[in-house]
Amino acid sequence: MILRLSDQQIHRWNWDGVGSGISAPVNITESIRTEPPMIDYETWASYLDDFADGAAADIDGDGAVNLIECALGGDPNDANSKPSPIGSLNGVNLEMVAKVATKIVGIDLDVESSPDCVNWTSAGVTPTVILEDTLSQTLKWVVPASGPKQFIRLRVDVSE
Predict the structure, then answer these.
(1) pTM metric for this prediction
(2) Three-state helix/strand/coil letters over 48-110
(3) Residue 67 burial by Cβ neighbours in a 10 Å radius (0-12, 13-18, 19+)
(4) What is the Cα–Cα distance from 140 to 85, expressed in whole angstroms?
(5) pLDDT over 70 for what percent of the chain?
């Protein structure tokens, strides 16, 4: 069986047949879904070679753990596909932009802020969708700056 996730369809092929020579019969069937299925982190992770390593593992060594790769649409087997949220200063606001996988359920995303990179609290802001396709959304969180120093980060958790 082969599963391929593309922007438009999911293809699943099953084949059976064993033998040698030209006349060995092989049956191939194909089923097509036009909408990719919703899956949770555990289902996504079960397709990994190193599933037992868990959500905190970094299979490809790119600095993004499996849970981050899942939530942000990265490939945990390819160090060149590291998902990277982008933080920036825009006037008096701090902004976080991240491309997130929309077909993954049971994952919580939250932008947190801190005056010292030690004590983090939820910034309490709702993201705006700035770009969308079949498999992902690009979200932007805008956090009003408060005080002389402020830092933001994207927190990713499995829902309880």
Answers:
(1) 0.72
(2) CCCHHHCCCCCCCCCCCCHHHHHHCCCCCCCHHHCCCCEEEEECCEEEEEEEEECCEECEEEE
(3) buried
(4) 10
(5) 75
In this structure, how many other beta carbons lie within 10 angstroms of the beta carbon of residue 69?
Answer: 28
Show the tokens assigned to 61: 């060594």
Sign of CA dihedral 105, 76, 42, 154: negative
Q: Which domains does the chain have, with CATH numbers?
A: 1-36 (no CATH), 86-158 (2.60.40.2440)
- How many residues comprise the chain? 160
Structure tokens at 137: 């959304």
| 70-89: pLDDT as tens digits | 999 888 888 898 888 999 99
